[in-house]
Amino acid sequence: MRKSLFILMVLFAIVVAQAQYRSQVWCPDNGDGTYTNPVLFADYSDPDVCVVGEDYYLTASSFNCIPGLPILHSKDLVNWTIIGYALQEQEPKEVFDKPAHGKGVWAPAFRYHQGEFYIYWGDPDYGIMMVKSKDPAGVWEKPVCVIPGKGMIDPCPLWDTDGRCYLVNGWANSRCGFNSVLTVRELSKDGTKAISLPRIVFDGGQVNHTSEGPKFYKHDGYYWIMCPAGGVEMGWQLAMRSKSPYGPYEWRRVMWQGKTDINGPHQGAWVHTKYHEDWFLHFNDKGAYGRVVYLQPVDWSSGWPMMGNNGEPVTRFRKPKASEKGLAVAVVNPQESDEFNDGKMGLQWQWHANYHHFYGMPTADGIMRLYTNDLPAGFKSLWDVPNLLLQKPSAPSFTATAKVRFASKEDNQYGGLVMMGRDYSALVIQRQGDSFLLQRHTCIGADEGKAETQQTLATLKPTDSDTIPYSPAIYMDLYLRMTVKDSQCHYSYSLDGKRFKSAGDAFPMRQGKWIGAKFGFVAECRDRKSNRGWLDVDWIKVNR
User: Which residues contact 415 (CB under 8 A, 6 or more apart)?
Assistant: First the structure.
């Protein structure tokens, strides 16, 4: 009985610790009733937020990464934690079982209607997709294709007061040959299929080129569409209103860079809180770090939703009201470090493609095991490899240290840490004979089909070996570290976890296809002739 009670107490402590994770490298809550932007210094591009009472739920574009459609929760729009994912696999499998960079989930919309949560997104190659659930942290239903076809992106539904459902969406020039227009059509009341043809309600033209990412609302007797224009890096935010969902719409610019250093502030979610406050969450492009999330106050006094400080984004501001009594919300941040102690991966992790159990699994004794994956024929770089286990950088500067044990059954099996993007570099240990080589594997122009290069830094003796006669392994126990600052990644390693040696030159980080650079683990093998090897990750700690 005592043992069972002790186990329950330990499991409860783990759950509480995960639910209340506090970052050592980025916390927007200043502890004095104010916050500092960005509220999420991580690549949650095209964010949208659903409000239910005092709870806020955020999702974002996930493209080819799986699980997809991350679900974050907050009580005050400042302190966020990851609670799950709405998409466990993408179809068609023959496309998404391999890294389909830049494809998949584009610009989702998050809504709550009649007791159910809905997420709509545009897959530019297959159509408008939708998933729903009664519990945002639980299991989501299998995706439904609401409108099949190419080119439709950035959809957002609006259930009107009479029960009718309308959908606004943008268009991808890369798939259909035109863009900058927004269209509206009616859906069935359950939001599962179109029951009318689309109608162009706004054309950005030259003045508001690259109009896309629309969100649909109804407020103060008007139908509102809020959308970005002008492009990711140098664009602005529009608001438009009409007495009919089909327009015509009048528009205004409601946020722009102005005299700030926050370029391209746009695309996100208007939030009206239980306490009658108005806020807007949007992204800002940070290059290699991806598109990070800012929170702006919204002022409707002019009849238009002016964001930030009369249209210019703010960096520091008072926090949103979070309770009737003005009580402070617990400081929490999205998960980063992971000890793998509860038999599953932390929610910060994503694969580069649909998951297969050959890639790896957590163990019962607090280890994440990654099996060496067979590299494809004609392998050039990790750009084409699906089994990378990665997470988003969550601060401009941080150090990630991992305790690992690599088990190798034959030559050319390797594993280690990687910073992945269009360019990438990895610090790995690779077997050669009865020894291990410490190597840097680097590729400049992976997205262009360039081949990686390998640099051997040291030869290491195994720390253990099998005595069994069948397919014996040799082992290497090691501490691997990456230190990131100003978009530069520095690697080091240690045999004892105390004294670290530099491992090659600094690597300039570079973003992926529509996503920021991501870091994590790699385990691969070339020309496998016997059993797979594996990389056992005991823990990874992210700190200053």
Answer: 370, 372, 404, 406, 428, 429, 521, 522, 523, 524, 533, 534, 535
